[in-house]
């Protein structure tokens, strides 16, 4: 009799342990560093992520045709001014040149939900309009912290690009 009670107790404890362990695996963990106000401000979901549109700038059909250096300089000044304007409007969250040779030239990440919204923004770039750049787009799911890159970058930039 004592042996059966002991066996029953052991089986009961194993069952309870397995139930608690199973429930713990299915229960999401919470982050003690979580900042609900910042998450809301940046548009983060429960994982700290959000949707963007990723753009790869590629060499365009008129890149080699536009050989006048003053014209190219003017187009690139407009390109940088446009990126600055879009960043200040919180539409462009990340941009930069790709370090490989042509055809891929740069990367842009737009704070928009649709490809159509991103196309409208990229078409405001004078270098795209002139055909120096062409582009590919895809939806991207990344950290909502990207929304703070521009703000932080301003504190790091000793010289402005013009």
Compile the SSE list and pairings.
Layout: H1 2-26, H2 36-42, E1 49-59, H3 69-88, E2 92-97, E3 104-110, H4 115-122, H5 126-129, E4 133-143, H6 149-156
Antiparallel strand pairs: 1-3, 1-4, 2-3
Protein described:
- It is built from 6 helices and 4 strands.
- A hairpin with a 6-residue loop joins strand 2 and strand 3.
- It has a domain of about 110 residues: Alpha-Beta Plaits (2-Layer Sandwich).
- The chain is an alpha+beta fold.
- Helices cover about 45% and strands about 20% of the residues.
- It has a 4-stranded antiparallel sheet.
- It is elongated.
H and E order:
HHEHEEHHEH
H/I helix tally: 6
The helix content, as a percent range, equals 40-55%
Number of strands: 4
What's the name of the CATH homologous superfamily of the domain at 50-156? Answer: Dimeric alpha+beta barrel
**CATH hierarchy, class of the domain at 50-156:** Alpha Beta
Low-pLDDT residue intervals, each spanning 5 or more residues? 3-14
The radius of gyration over CA amounts to 26 Å
Comma- or semicolon-separated keywords:
162 residues; alpha+beta; Alpha-Beta Plaits; 4-stranded antiparallel beta sheet; 6 helices; 4 strands
Provide a short characterization of the protein structure.
The chain is about 45% helix and about 20% strand.
